[in-house]
Amino acid sequence: MAGEVRAHTGSGRVELVSLKGGVDAHTGSGGIEGTGIAGTIVARTGSGAIRLEQAAQAAVKAHTGSGGVHVEQAVTVKGSVGKNDLNATLRGGGPLLDLSTGSGGIRIE
Q1: pTM of the prediction?
Q2: Are 4 and 21 within 8 A, CB to CB?
Q3: C-alpha to C-alpha distance for 42 and 96, rounded to whole angstroms
Q4: Which residues of the chain register pLDDT less than 50?
């Protein structure tokens, strides 16, 4: 699917697969999973985890209120890094992955 995608839910999980273009996904309570997304991703969840399979170049801005940030790929850190925060680039940078959870971890594979 190509173009902008918005997916918002108060309670429930959001799964995004094979998208080209910007993604805006929000949940009040529920996880967000993404695979094969080419473009900017804004993902927010109040209570739930965020998991992305990211093969493309990207800039990463990730924050959790409680939960960790885990990246399975080599990154270049920009600024500070902590258990709950990461500002970095994957493969030299690209579209922004702006990820945030209130309670839940963030994983980029």
Answers
A1: 0.93
A2: yes
A3: 8
A4: none
